[in-house]
Each structure stands twice: as C-alpha cells, then as structure tokens.
C-alpha cells in the first residue's frame, strides 16, 4: 500500500480536500485584479502613450494572474459549481493563449497529472539549452499540436470548441493587424503573453525537473495535491515545514516481539491473525485505518519480511491482519502460525488517509484488497454521521469472499450509509441465486438495497454506468482502489475519462 497521489504531509493539511465554497472569492478577486491590471496597462499604453517597456511588465503580470485562474478552473478549484469553473476558465483562456481552448487545456493538464512527471509535451523540458527559451515562448502551440494529435479519442464537442478557438482568436488578431494596429497588439497582447508563457514554462515545467527530489515549492506541492487552491499554499508550506516523521511507505520504529492471540480462518486461503498489544507498546502501535505493519520471521532458514494492512479498529488493544496464502511467508502465516506464537512486528506506517470531511467515499476491492479498505470505510462512516460509502467488491464466489458477514453487519449498522456491490466472477455462485438477481439497472438497485450481487467481473462499462448516475464524480469525494493492477487500471481509466482528479484517487498496492 503506497500512498500514490497523496503525500502524508498534505493529507494532514486541513485544507487539502476540504469542501470548496460555491464560488472561491480569492479566485474571482484574482481574475478581476488581473483584468483590471491588464486594462490599466492597456490604457497607459494606448491612451497615455507610455513607452512599451514600461507597460509590458504589467501586462505580463496580468497574464500570469489569468494563468493561475485558468489553472484553478482546470482543477475545479474555483468553486464547487462546475459551471463556475467552466465559465471562468473560458474567460481566462484567451488572455493566457491566443490558440487555446479551456476544455482542451483541461484535458491535457489533467492527463499530465495522471501520468506523473513524464511530460505530455516534453518539447519544452528537453532539448539544446539555446533552443529552450524559444520553446518556452511557444509552449501553447505545442500543446495545441499535442491535443490535435489526440483529438480522435476526444469528445466531439470538446474538439469543436478547440478548433473554433483556433480560428476565432487568431482570426481576430489578424483583423486587428489589418486595421493597422499591429504594434499596439504586439505590445499589449502578444509580447506579454509570450513572456508570461515562457516564465511559466521555465518555472513550472523545466525547473522542477532539475531540482533534487523532494525539493519543496509550489510545483511539487501542486503535483502532490492538485486541488489545493492557490490561496491556501502558504498554509501548505507551513504545514510541510512542521511535518516530521517517516516518509510515505517507509516503515517506522523498531521491530517488537508480539504474541499471536488468534488465528481465524477467513476463507480456505486466508486467515485473520490477531496480536495482543501490551500496555507499554500501545502508543507506538496506535494506527489510523489504511496503515500497515511489517512482519519478520525466519521461514525455512531464511529471514523474511512482509507488510500487511491493518485490519482492525483504531483504539482496540488488539491488532489484526488478514493474510492470503500465495507464497513463502503467507504460507507460513496461514499454515503454521498458532495462538501463543511470537513474531516480530514493526509499528504501523504508511498508508493512505481519507479526509475527515468526505461525504461519499467509493472503495473498489478485489479479494484480499478488502483488508485495508474495510477499516478505512468503516472508520469514515463511524467518524462522520452523514458520510456515505459504496464498496465495489470483486470475488470469485461467496466462499472466497473475506469479511462477507462483517460487511453485511456494517451495512445494517450504518443503516443505508454503506452500500456494497458484490461482483462474483464464478457465475454459479450461490449468492447469485434467482431471488438475488440484479435489477436491470445497477444504479436503481443501489438506491433501494444496501447489498447487491452481480455476476461476472466489474467491467469498464458497468463502472461507466455507475459513474453516470449514483457514483457521479460530483457526488463522490474520494476513491480508493485496492485491487490487482489490471482492475485498478480499468478503474483509473474510467475515472480519468470522467475527469476525476488524481488527488481524489488513492491506490493501495500490495507489492
Ligand atoms: C503495503 C503492503 C500491504 C500489504 N497488505 C497485505 C494484506 O493485507 N494481506 C496480504 O495477504 N498481503 C498483503 N501484502 C502482500 C504481502 O506483503 C506479501 O507480499 C504476500 O503475503 C506474499 O508474500 P509471500 O512471502 O507469501 O510470497 P512470496 O514467496 O514472496 O511470493 C511472491 C509471489 O510469487 C509467487 N510464488 C511464490 N512461490 C511460488 C512458486 N513456488 N511458484 C510460483 N509462484 C510462486 C506467489 O504466488 C506470489 O505471487 C501487502 C503488501 C504491501 C507492500
């Protein structure tokens, strides 16, 4: 389980995924300020005939301000309402680029976030040193070319808008040149825009790739927490400074010898191993749902260390882990380990954290992937009385389904706030018997029943259907994927299609 999109430092920020206001006033203020500054500089240039060198700087600052607004809208951070982001993004785009369209820019930028540091338009981050400034000056053109190359796979309306903007804005510029105002256009629009783009490409794209890994600053913080609005960055930096402790995924603390108190079969292949935590170690073994412990044991003469998700409740004096038999260590744990045995366990570490104010969390688990998800979802529901959770749980058949009874009990206890969709790949499974046959439409079924059973794998089509209705991205705050790479990949692609930001997706990895 490695923290994928989120850094723990930012997860703990109060601002990282807090609910946005309907409209973000600082973003509106920045838009208005940039517009006013640009208008003032234009007035100075055209009416007061102030020399170009004096006004170009002001215009450039105004373009940078508009870029920040555009960027906020791309990440849906300009307000909770989608149309606010769409309108403001469209208004800001022509100031930032003479060739760009907002939806196309949004697609390219989010695509880049989803694919990590590998740059979609690497043209402006690589190349001979003397050529780079020229590349930065024309960064938006390269983005347009990249978008057009991908346009076959993009929605028609989005492509149409990109093409329309490609004709409209440059066409207007040509018309202005035709009226004999080429120099004014150059000074108040073209030159400042190019300078701003070059500065942004250098600062935002090129420079971060040459800094040491872990260097703090806006680009790095943004990469880890893309939806954090620009006006909360001072807080982010303060919180990062205050942050101490091991990095994500790093084990914390020394091994301690713990006594196994119970080994309970979950399925024919998996067991729940429980340890008693002695009084003196309780503080060190305090954990939050989603964390894991590392176990160490000598198996067949060789010392092995393996990590296992914690599968119990915070505050308990016991710590449970679910282990599925696949190889040497898990074979030993499921076959040989008995109550009363002692084993070395390293205190809890790593793991993804759900935001305390999430209203709706969706988990996707397959098989043993339920181990970290079960406590995460249960804790989220217990901590926030109005929170909801939906679990999409894929297993071969009922006998392979871990924690099935616990899930039924949780669904009953949380009284409609937890919904579980079981997908059974063995279509002869007893839970798929006629009385439990799914309703024709998954979303309708979800609305009336807390637990449903579906034959077959969870397909991209089914996910799309869910995202189109009950699990619409606007109604879900966080997604946790705890499944093998192929299924997690399908889910990530479908979420990406629906513009779910990478920051809202946590991936639990078991290797
Ligand atoms: C953060 C984190 C959390 C995790 N949480 C859990 C959890 O909650 N529950 C859980 O069960 N696991 C979890 N894992 C995985 C766990 O750490 C081990 O990797 C897993 O138990 C396998 O270890 P092993 O020694 O049994 O397998 P290994 O012996 O290391 O084998 C690894 C792979 O090789 C294959 N293999 C082994 N022997 C053979 C053979 N003779 N022939 C062919 N193939 C073979 C196995 O099928 C397996 O796929 C987690 C991993 C991480 C990183």
UniProtKB/TrEMBL annotation:
GO molecular function (one): 2 iron, 2 sulfur cluster binding
Membrane-traversing stretches: 20-44, 50-70, 159-177, 183-204
Pfam families named in the record: FAD_binding_6, NAD_binding_1
Keyword check for Kinase: no
Cofactor(s) named in the record: FAD
PANTHER family membership: 1,2-PHENYLACETYL-COA EPOXIDASE, SUBUNIT E (PTHR47354:SF8), NADH OXIDOREDUCTASE HCR (PTHR47354)
Native source organism of the sequence: Amycolatopsis taiwanensis
Name used for this protein in its record: Phenylacetic acid degradation protein
Cited Gene3D superfamilies: Nucleotide-binding domain of ferredoxin-NADP reductase (FNR) module (3.40.50.80), Translation factors (2.40.30.10)
Start and end residues of each FAD-binding FR-type domain: 253-355
InterPro entries on file: Cbr1-like_FAD-bd_dom, FAD-bd_FR_type, FNR_nucleotide-bd, MRET, OxRdtase_FAD/NAD-bd, Riboflavin_synthase-like_b-brl
Alphabetical keyword list: 2Fe-2S, FAD, Flavoprotein, Iron, Iron-sulfur, Membrane, Metal-binding, Oxidoreductase, Transmembrane, Transmembrane helix
